[in-house]
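Re: Re: token formats

Sure, here are both.
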Amino acid sequence: MSNNKRVERDSENEEAIGSIEFRLSAGLKPWDGDPEEYCISAEGKIKLSVGDESDPDAMATAGSLNLVVIKMPNAIDDHVNLKQVFDSYSEDLLDIYRALFDEEGNIKEELRIECVPCDIAFIESITLKPKHRSSALFLQTLETAIAAFAGQGLTVAYMRTLDFDDNEWTKCGFEVVPGTMVIFRDGAKIAPDRKAG
């Protein structure tokens, strides 16, 4: 799967052409209530055009990203415990569950998340090679991953993964879970003009 997108760069005001080539891993249905099966991992290679736009082979790998999509609606429909789904993937994801959900397994009311039940995309990492590092490409990568996997859903990450200051997170639609290092973006709250971008 590949997403091509033309973007304006922050500092140079030049257009960049690129794509993210995703590789997914998901078990075949039926999942039979196995918590691990409700976590679909995706690895992406960030590719940038390095030559003539008409030559599809003139692409260089600029970096990579890793994410996992938690199929929350499927787990609920199959009566699978969501905490077990998060725990089946990693300790980091279990900590995110604890940040978002209360003791009864409901999204914490104080977070005012509107998009549930929905798919939840956990951005594990975004890594750019030194010569391709720029905030514009980082944001392009982040927005493309969200559009591909959680446009109307919930996106979560750790602050360390999205190495922005608070103002950058807010501009991208993220909020901080109070008292944690977890940030989230509710796709149901994003303005229509941002969704179109």
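Second one below.
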Amino acid sequence: MSESPGRPWPRVGSVEQLLAQLEKEGIPYLRLSSQETVSIPTRLGDEEGVLHIRWQGEAGLVQFVHPVPLEVPFERRAEMLEALNRVNHQLAVLGFTLNPDDGYCSFRTQAFLDPEGCLLVGLVGALIATCARTVLEYLPALRAVAIPPPVATYLVSGSVA
């Protein structure tokens, strides 16, 4: 973690510093081998989730990616893309994505590194919370798009109405 004169707020400038901060705060994590990626478990109501933090120093940013625990069937992907577009339009922090090949959704956002290659520790915590909270908030609606409830049918005089 680095602090410099005129910048009293703690910052992290590498995956190693991020890991040290997570340990300091008692946040469990798993570092994926051979990648600059850290996975953090999350709770989505009664379900478990995971948030991936991908440090991309050469690109000058850090990605925060939280998979949405649902698979969108092929025949529902156009509807899901439309729903995600509408949701993203309302969000202050973007945004939801859909992989068109496998039908998996994620909430993905990023933070840009400062000129010294660092992020404020507070920003890291805020983005972790934002990602998990956003997935939790929109999960019921996204599930309804991916797997719509069955249409009610009524039997009237032996026929379906």
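The chain has a mean pLDDT of 89. The chain is about 30% helix and 35% strand.
- S.
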